Amino acid sequence: xxxxxxxxxxxxxxxxxxxxxxxxxxxxxxxxxxxxxxxxxxxxxxxxxxxxxxxxxxxxxxxxxxxxxxxxxxxxxxxxxxxxxxxxxxxxxxxxxxxxxxxxxxxxxxxxxxxxxxxxxxxxxxxxxxxxxxxxxxxxxxxxxxxxxxxxxxxxxxxxxxxxxxxxxxxxxxxxxxxxxxxxxxxxxxxxxxxxxxxxxxxxxxxxxxxxxxxxxxxxxxxxxxxxxxxxxxxxxxxxxxxxxxxxxxxxxxxxxxxxxxxxxxxxxxxxxxxxxxxxxxxxxxxxxxxxxxxxxxxxxxxxxxxxxxxxxxxxxxxxxxxxxxxxxxxxxxxxxxx
Length: 339
Hints:
This protein is an alpha/beta fold. Helices cover 22% and strands 18% of the residues. The relative contact order is 0.15.
């Protein structure tokens, strides 16, 4: 990726005059293509200049040349580039690779280099546990970051960190990665952001006023959706406590490959559709059951993947609208989910 795409604070400040939207809107684009979310923000006090960004997530690229997931990611990139107005930046929310191999990550970076907008990335477990993030960090930089953009504070955290289960067991790097590839992964235990990132987050937001709009990106949900599949983040309660002073916090995450919504206090969460496949819903009663779409049709390769939009008004109230590429939404979902 060229230096022109580096996402520095200076670069973002230089983008400050280009927005033209009146509300916060996020739009995801994908089909076996991928998720892309676009955000435009505005507050009633005029502190936020409207802007847009995109999200792509969970491409799970294999080492196989010309795999269908490669085309899906490339199609998502093309969709983002075609958006009007152009997005200010793109966030990738984890799992570029399937099993952490450097060639998979390199392939993902090469495809993502086709983006016209700057890129920020956070890792997923499939990116990390072959070499404990060495290749990922070398290609994409720091996994923990924050920046201010046109009046909104945005934060990215690595939420897939587990306690060391491999050293004592004498596991190889490949065995460690194989363990983390398991959906249920009972050996590894629960994920979290852990102490260093909690300290980073606390210091990062300490001086921000309570009316600052906050958007936080993690790979896994910041609530206990289904811990058996690690559809959760162990130290999410600490994260929510640190962010509890803010009027409203939007949490956008990958990993679940499906429509799902939750709200705890001031934090509203929305799960993202992937570029690879839809996960089935786990056997759990959701606190917001209407956020579950119909079972995807296995005969339709586009079903269960697609797009979503999020609109946030001047009071920070918002609406998430999913736009799948097959008719899998319930009537309630078609009307949108308030966040």
